[in-house]
Amino acid sequence: MASYTATRKLYTLIVPVDSQRVLLGYKKRGFGEGKYNGFGGKVEPGETIAEGAIRELEEEACIKAKNLPYHGILFLESTADSKAPILEIHVFTATEWAGEPMETEEMRPVWFAPPSTTHDSSDSPAIPFQNMWEESREWLPLVLAFYFPTPRRGKIQFAHHVTFKGGLNPETGLEDIWHGIDRKFVKWLESGRKDDEGFPGDLEDWTEEVREQWIEKRMMAFEKNKM
Ligand SMILES: CNc1ncnc2c1ncn2[C@@H]1O[C@H](COP(=O)(O)OP(=O)(O)OP(=O)(O)O)[C@@H](O)[C@H]1O
């Protein structure tokens, strides 16, 4: 079996929520500068994905997550640059933490009203999807629908495999390889149980081996579609 050799970057992303609001960060520098997003970054050698997620949230927003519901994976490719890495981003929410969100050198935390809120019933502004990564429009509302208007039991998880062809970045007016959705595969699981395509419902089931196999399967599915 051909194995997929492009560089892969392992990232985390946490979206903190309280009973009425969603915390996003305005990225002040580096990758994604000028956009709102959850908090996260690269997983460092020697740490687990969950450890990386907690560390990045603390570094970027000064809060320490006390829980970390797992929601799944964003698996992002861009055909606009053959040398672009593949982004493997593991997504969490947090509903409990220690400390108060504070601005850091990298991020400015801002509270937003979830999409289900009517304008008049919230003091917070609506989530600025136009200033976020393009594919956030797809997965973030569905994750938030699990909490708002009323929290549901159980788990909601997804696998989201998107290929970008490059497109105009609305913040800069320049071409960006991570814009312009070309193809997408979206899978939702409400139970958090492993499914027949091998998508594991829980973070601890994403062993190195399972990740390799699942990703290889995804890559092959997209390759097949091309023909
Ligand atoms: C293309 N579509 C995307 N959609 C949603 N989220 C995206 C994303 N692309 C990157 N992300 C997130 O953006 C952060 C980058 O983090 P980034 O600052 O580069 O990492 P880290 O803090 O380790 O970097 P340095 O240490 O400064 O190199 C990290 O949370 C990662 O999950």
Automatic annotation (TrEMBL):
CDD domains: NUDIX_MTH1_Nudt1 (cd03427)
Reaction(s) catalysed (UniProt annotation): 2-oxo-dATP + H2O = 2-oxo-dAMP + diphosphate + H(+); O(6)-methyl-dGTP + H2O = O(6)-methyl-dGMP + diphosphate + H(+); 8-oxo-dATP + H2O = 8-oxo-dAMP + diphosphate + H(+); 8-oxo-dGTP + H2O = 8-oxo-dGMP + diphosphate + H(+)
Cofactor(s), names only, from the UniProt record: Mg(2+)
Recorded GO CC terms: cytoplasm
One Pfam family of this chain: NUDIX
Domain of life: Eukaryota
GO biological process: DNA protection
Domain Nudix hydrolase: 7-142
Record's keyword annotation contains Oxidoreductase: no
Keyword check for Metal-binding: yes
GO molecular function, one term: dATP diphosphatase activity
EC numbers on record: 3.6.1.56
Keywords, sorted A to Z: Hydrolase, Magnesium, Metal-binding
Catalytic class of the enzyme: hydrolase
Protein family: Belongs to the Nudix hydrolase family.
Quaternary structure annotation from Swiss-Prot or TrEMBL: Monomer.
Task of the protein: Oxidized purine nucleoside triphosphate hydrolase which is a prominent sanitizer of the oxidized nucleotide pool. Catalyzes the hydrolysis of 2-oxo-dATP (2-hydroxy-dATP) into 2-oxo-dAMP. Also has a significant hydrolase activity toward 2-oxo-ATP, 8-oxo-dGTP and 8-oxo-dATP. Through the hydrolysis of oxidized purine nucleoside triphosphates, prevents their incorporation into DNA and the subsequent transversions A:T to C:G and G:C to T:A. Also catalyzes the hydrolysis of methylated purine nucleoside triphosphate preventing their integration into DNA.
The protein's name in its UniProt record: Oxidized purine nucleoside triphosphate hydrolase
